[in-house]
């Protein structure tokens, strides 16, 4: 059973990338094989139907789908932009959904969502929207456990862990819940 973590931000200093990397570390500390993928390595043009008709689905969307297919559980850690998910993340999911090869990577593995924001609500509204897109739009199974991390500017210690022990434990519990669900799903 293997887990994949990625963030809906391409920014180098992204809080959400930090949280996704922390998820990978927590998983590994629990003996679970896990990787972090950076969407910087999968940049794609904005979805355009004419572009798809003329050139097909971008190679990077195909590569990301192939990567997703290698993992049993996926955690997406997303920022919140104007109360919703960033265009980068929606565009990435839209393109990957256009790759028509088997397996359907959304229906055949388990997802978890989490988010971080400098504000008070920890990207909560973005998480609600991402849940809906994954479950309703893409037919994915999304576990109920999630982490909405507020005050992200001051939330991380130098080593990438969360300063607040309770939050660190809560996040570790989300990763564990994803691992448990992914194991069941993969069986
Ligand atoms: C266009 C835009 C809209 C934003 N809207 C929200 C918002 O609705 N809620 C929120 O908590 N933060 C909002 N933010 C602040 C982001 O949470 C902040 O930039 C965050 O650091 C982005 O995530 P990252 O650190 O992973 O790149 C917004 C930022 C941008 C650039």
Automatic annotation (TrEMBL):
InterPro entries: Flavoprotein-like_sf, FMN_Rdtase-like_dom, NAD(P)H-dep_reductase. It holds the Pfam family FMN_red. One of its GO terms (molecular function) is oxidoreductase activity. Residues 1-152 form the NADPH-dependent FMN reductase-like domain. One of its GO terms (cellular component) is cytosol. This is NADPH-dependent FMN reductase-like domain-containing protein. It comes from Methyloceanibacter methanicus. The lineage of its organism: Bacteria, Pseudomonadati, Pseudomonadota, Alphaproteobacteria, Hyphomicrobiales.
